[in-house]
Amino acid sequence: MTQLKIKKILCTVDFSDESKKALDFAYSLSSQIPGCELVVISVLRPIPTPIGDFTGANETLIDDDQDNLKAVSERLNTLVHDTKGDCMAKITDKAVLGNPVDEILRNINEEKPDLVVMGNKKHGFRRGIFTGSVSERVSADSPVSVLIVR
């Protein structure tokens, strides 16, 4: 039996209770693995831009996106440092703008983690059948193992 060597964990956070449980789990796991690195990301969906509006709304929405991204980045930084406790792992946090599934998968390919840790909000059958959850879609397309924390 080969032993799994985890050197880097990527954890996604959307500030829900479920994602905070996932972050706690990722901290706990990474603190037990000498030299393990933990990357914590949060993805902010862009504000939809009205089509055909020539009043300058596009600039306002882009500015709003950047302001919101800065606020999410500050909130993520606070969450990471408040939750850190005695975790000895190297921790990086970053907030990104885009579609959550696409950005998480892009970061998985970029960061090359050995494990992805995510929370899961159970939305029910009707909503899930049409869109699927972010964690389901990421786990289906991820090149590495995805651990879903409930």
UniProtKB/TrEMBL annotation:
Keywords: ATP-binding, Nucleotide-binding. SUPFAM superfamilies: Adenine nucleotide alpha hydrolases-like. Pfam families: Usp. Gene3D superfamilies: HUPs. The keyword Isomerase does not apply. PANTHER family: STRESS RESPONSE PROTEIN NHAX, UNIVERSAL STRESS PROTEIN RV2623. Belongs to the universal stress protein A family. This is UspA family nucleotide-binding protein. It comes from Cuniculiplasma divulgatum.
